[in-house]
Amino acid sequence: MTSSSPYQLFGRAARRYDLHTPPHHYQDDHAFVLAELQSRGRQPVLDVGCGTGVFLQRAREASLEAFGLDASPEMVDVAARRLGPGIVRMARMQDLEEREAYGALVSLCWSFNYCQSTAEARDVLRRFHQALRPGGLLLLQVAHGPSATGKLQEDWETGPGGEERDVQFLYQFLSEPEDEPRLRARYTYACRSLGELFWEEHVLHVADARLVAGLALEAGFRELQVFNSWRREPLGRSVSPFVLAVKPGL
Asked: Looking at the 3D structure of the chain, how many domains does it have?
């Protein structure tokens, strides 16, 4: 199977993703998203860029009717192994054409920032708006370049055989505050027990939560909120804030 992803993290190394970024890393973010979905009673839910299906698993365990899509066949394969058939499909957010099919649409972990330009992000938000039912909730977790410090950070994780400090993950975020703000995310993964090592750089576009919020308004969304983190405080120094909005008409 040939990967449609230009990035190893989402392609040939997709089965390693939960090693260097294990599910517990997301527990607070996911609890926040689930609380928003449950308090609003918006179903069914579409997770755009669902990756290995960690959030979908939590959502379905919480009795939400949740489905996902991802552009990487390798990621979809991992998610399908986790969730079973019929939950995740391979598709690009740029090609989403459903109309009023969902009560909520979420896109986490900067998936939205893999749009290639502001123009493409504007079109994707229009597609999200079209896919939601009146009153539907949009919840995006986006890259926010203005908060990137360039600091090199390091995580150590347990290996596939239970070995402590077996998996090392280095990451660095560099902001490029241009007319179309970008964030360069540099990642290095290594696993001693498997003898694996690779490095790559991801270019994330529209990397400014305020810009994304403005584009959401242009697309027709209202009741806009921008939170710095799962704690729901105002936008501050987070590199990974949340943008929430509602499609009018309920």
From this structure: 2
User: 218 with 122: CB under 8 angstroms?
Assistant: yes
**Do residue 229 and residue 167 come from a single domain?**
no
**Whether residue 119 sits in one domain with residue 24:** yes
Shared domain check, 224 and 190 = no
Q: Are 239 and 228 in contact (CB under 8 A)?
A: no
Q: Are residues 154 and 50 in the same domain?
A: no
Q: What is the CATH number of the domain that holds 176?
A: 2.20.130
CA distances, 27 to each of 30, 34, 87, 140, 181 (Å): 5, 10, 21, 16, 29
Element of type H or E holding 67:
strand 66-70
Q: How far is CA 223 from the centre of its chain?
A: 21
Range of the domain at 220: 14-145+208-246
pTM score over 0.85? yes
Q: How far is CA 243 from CA 67, 108, 141, 171, 211, in A?
A: 20, 10, 6, 24, 10
Question: Would 4 be classed as within a structural domain?
Answer: no
Instruction: Give the integer Cα–Cα distance in Å for 5 and 44.
Output: 27
Tokens linked to 169: 């993950």
Distance CA 53, CA 44 (A): 16
Q: What is the pLDDT of residues 39-69, one digit of tens each?
A: 988 899 999 999 999 999 999 999 999 999 9
Q: Token pair for residue 183?
A: 């964030």
> Closest Cα partner for 89 from 132, 50, 138, 126?
50
Whether the CB-CB separation of 221 and 129 falls below 8 Å is answered with yes
Condensed to tens digits (0 to 9), the pLDDT of residues 233-249 reads 999 999 999 999 999 98
